[in-house]
């Protein structure tokens, strides 16, 4: 039996992926999200399809909660697990966490790294998949402003924070060559991510009608999960849907990579 840890499991892509993987009898799904009631309902749905699942509630909106979540996962997950980083936030306004960081910078970048650290230290992981975003090519990082949202934008902040995590996971792949790491753009998917109110929200809801259903994306991710290997040891490949592509130029910029690396290490060390 292999454990498959799925964050952001209660909604959207995560919910659909859990159901798509329910019939994989060799895997036990470890479902992570904030909403315990929705997680419990999903566990029941997975079991009704013949799968195995457990719920591990956890909140990635603060580093202390993320640290505690990582420890809870260590207690229930066996070595050789796959971690799917799927939880994400597209904020409409600047909000700070209890630690003083912009919320999306925490949810999309710092907190997943904090949670993951416990699993890495305990040698629980064999593979890590990051559900990222094609919009990382628009990302920019300002070490003085991005962590606290001093450069907040209703669009750019999502791009910036997704870029940060993608770069951090490239460093994780280099530091842990025995772990297979992939970062991917899952497709343009019809979920409530980035939902807005007012006229902009109405226009966005109209546009989303033409986007692909979460179930279609989930089937794609399940096919990728079934691959024997994603990346060469010490590397993290970049996939756009199911096709490998070159990393966007901003993700290859050494000054950006160094700034994200140094700032992330400092913030996590002092958190």
Helix content: 40-55%
Radius of gyration: 17 Å
CATH secondary-structure class:
Alpha Beta
Major sheet: size, sense and barrel closure?
8 strands, mixed
Total DSSP E strands? 8
Percent strand equals 15-25%
Shape designation: globular
Annotated CATH homologous superfamily:
NAD(P)-binding Rossmann-like Domain
End-to-end gap: 35 Å
Order of strands, widest sheet: 3-2-1-4-5-6-7-8
Number of helices: 9
Order of helices and strands: EHEHEHEHEHEHHEEHH
Q: How many domains in all? A: 1
Overall mean confidence score, pLDDT:
92
Helix-strand category = alpha/beta
As for the CATH topology, it is Rossmann fold
Poorly predicted runs: 200-209
Overview of the molecule:
The protein is an alpha/beta fold. The chain has a single domain, classed as Rossmann fold (3-Layer(aba) Sandwich). Helix content is 44%, strand content 15%. It is built from nine helices and eight strands. Strands 3-2-1-4-5-6-7-8 form an eight-stranded mixed sheet, with helices on both faces. Strand 4 (81-85), helix 4 (103-121) and strand 5 form a beta-alpha-beta unit. Helix 4 (103-121) packs parallel to helix 5. It is globular, with a radius of gyration of 17 Å.
């Amino acid at each position: 039996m292999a454990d498959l840890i799925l964050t952001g499991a209660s909604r959207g892509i995560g919910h659909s992926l859990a159901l798509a993987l329910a019939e994989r009898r060799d895997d036990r799904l470890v479902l992570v999200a904030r909403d315990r009631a929705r997680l419990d309902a999903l566990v029941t749905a997975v079991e009704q399809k013949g799968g195995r699942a457990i719920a591990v509630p956890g909140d990635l909106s603060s580093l202390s909660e993320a640290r505690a979540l990582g420890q809870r996962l260590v207690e229930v997950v066996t070595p050789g697990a796959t971690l799917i980083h799927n939880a994400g936030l597209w904020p409409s306004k600047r909000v700070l966490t209890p630690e003083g960081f912009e919320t999306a910078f925490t949810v999309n970048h710092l907190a997943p790294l904090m949670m993951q650290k416990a699993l890495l230290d305990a040698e629980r992981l064999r593979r890590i998949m990051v559900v990222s975003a094609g919009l990382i090519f628009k990302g920019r990082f300002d070490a003085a402003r991005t962590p606290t949202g001093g450069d907040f934008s209703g669009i750019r902040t999502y791009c910036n924070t997704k870029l940060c995590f993608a770069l951090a996971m490239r460093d994780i792949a280099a530091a842990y060559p025995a772990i297979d790491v992939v970062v991917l753009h899952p497709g343009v998917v019809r979920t409530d991510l980035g939902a807005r109110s007012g006229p902009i929200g109405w226009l966005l809801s109209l546009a989303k009608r033409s986007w692909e259903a979460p179930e279609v994306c989930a089937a794609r991710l399940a096919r990728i999960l079934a691959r024997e290997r994603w990346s060469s040891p010490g590397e993290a490949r970049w996939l756009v849907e199911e096709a490998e592509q070159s990393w966007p130029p901003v993700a290859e910029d050494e000054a950006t990579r160094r700034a994200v690396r140094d700032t992330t290490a400092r913030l996590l060390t002092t958190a």
